[in-house]
């Protein structure tokens, strides 16, 4: 039976690309413009790209507490991609505006800076980069350390000692590229643009976290 996945349309993100790859993986995918009847889903997805302040306001408009209840209390499997990972943290500061996140993960999101002195550092961080695995989980089945994924972002959470950090990436500084907490998974990169590694990680999420 096809797994029922709802993509949350918060007026940002690569919705069609994420929908296409989930359809390719034989899911029953719906795009939801509000938070009504989300309990019918077997998995929820917030795709990237986007602005932290914008996505925070869009979530508030649709009833933030309802989403928190589904994820944190009812333990609905959740996948956040790019801004979808960032909004899981406590807050984000983008364009000098501080906005509240969902607070499901400890930490804050800020602009990447060149603390490590990269010669060719510029923002956004765009293109292929490697992940360094901190913690092996079912999400990373058949994905070796230092595998490459496709990134497109200027902001991230650099608290890589966070207990929910599964993998980090370096670009100017180290930042969380994969976070995981029980039913919650967040990816700073774009699996839908990451070719075979992206397909693998989405398959792992569907097979190990989303129960039909």
Structure description:
There is one protein chain. The chain is α/β, with parallel strands linked by helices and about 210 residues long. Helices cover about 25% and strands about 30% of the residues. It has a single domain, classed as Class I glutamine amidotransferase (GATase) domain (Rossmann fold). The strands form three sheets. It has an eight-stranded mixed beta sheet. It has a four-stranded mixed beta sheet with strand order 6-5-7-11, covered by helices on one side. A two-stranded antiparallel ribbon has the order 8-10. Strand 12 and strand 13 form a beta hairpin. It is globular. The model has no long low-confidence stretch (mean pLDDT about 95).
Give me the number of helical elements: 5
Biggest beta-sheet profile: 8 strands, mixed
Task: Work out the helicity level.
Answer: 10-25%
SSE pattern, N- to C-terminal: EHEEHHEHEEEEEEEEEEH
Molecular shape: globular
Portion of residues in beta strands equals 25-35%
The CATH class label is Alpha Beta
CATH-assigned homologous superfamily: Class I glutamine amidotransferase (GATase) domain
Low-confidence stretches: none
CATH architectural type:
3-Layer(aba) Sandwich
Can you tell me the number of structural domains?
1
Number of distinct beta strands: 14
Q: Name the average pLDDT.
A: 95
Could you give the order of strands across the largest sheet? 2-1-3-4-14-13-12-9
Structural class: alpha/beta
CATH topology: Rossmann fold
Supply Rg.
Answer: 16 Å
CA distance, first residue to last residue: 8 Å
